[in-house]
Amino acid sequence: MSQNQIKWLATILMVIDHIGFLLEIEPMRVVGRLSFPLFAWVLAQNWKRREPNSSAKPLINRLVLFGIISQVPHLLLFNNLQLNILISLAVAIITFVQIHKSDRKILVLTAGLITAQVLGVSYGWYAVACPLLMVNLKGKGDRMWWISWSITNIIYATSASSLIQLFAVLTPVILSWHNPAKDRKPTAIEKKFFYYFYPVHLAGLAALRAIL
Q1: pLDDT computed for residue 51 by the predictor
Q2: Which of 77, 147, 161, 182 has the smallest number of CB atoms closer than 10 Å to its CB?
Q3: 93 near 59, Cβ under 8 Å?
Q4: Contact yes or no for 168/153 (Cβ under 8 A)
């Protein structure tokens, strides 16, 4: 699979997860646990491929803008004040940028984890930890990476009282099918599609919830 195909898969799994939430179908929610880690991996790949001196501001601004647009339908669908995943990914990228600039990387990482938790973004501190682990994933991952990945997911599943989150541990199995030779530069439409699709699908499901 190419990186773009993995992003499409993550999008499909996200929709399955949200429909599962709406209709209270647990198996759909279990499968949906793979969605965010896949998006985190895509974000990590884009971060690793960036130009050394390129600015992350356009990406951060885009995530925040569409995150703000998506927040009302997100609230109406999930009926909570948690900030949506676009804001989560924005916090992750901001943390990456600051880690890259700083000599006190552990301190900056800790600040990023705490910030994500305090802001109440979707996935909390995991929204920063997950992409960070994906940045360090090489191939199928070595033993230390798998131990770190498994422990992170176990801690998050336990702290969030969401045992189905443990299914996310299997995400690297899907990523093992990634074939870099199939990667290509996405078209302008492909780049923008998810940003527009995210609030639209939330609004559609929120409207459906109001009807049901």
Answers
A1: 66
A2: 161
A3: yes
A4: yes
Decide: pTM greater than 0.85: yes
Which pair of tokens denotes residue 77? 């669908």
Average pLDDT score over the chain:
92
In which residue are the tokens 């705490």 written? 114
Distances 89 to 35, 176, 180, 181 between C-alpha atoms, Å: 13, 23, 23, 26
Q: Map residue 101 onto helix, strand or coil.
A: helix
pLDDT at 154: 96
Are 84 and 71 in contact, with CB atoms under 8 Å apart? yes
Q: Any idea what DSSP says for residue 162?
A: -
- pLDDT tens digit string along 129-157? 999 999 988 776 788 999 999 999 999 99
Rounded distance, CA 179 to CA 198, Å?
A: 26
Pairwise CA distance, residues 96 & 94, whole Å: 5
Beta bridge partners of 121: 83
Q: Which residue has the tokens 């971060």?
A: 47
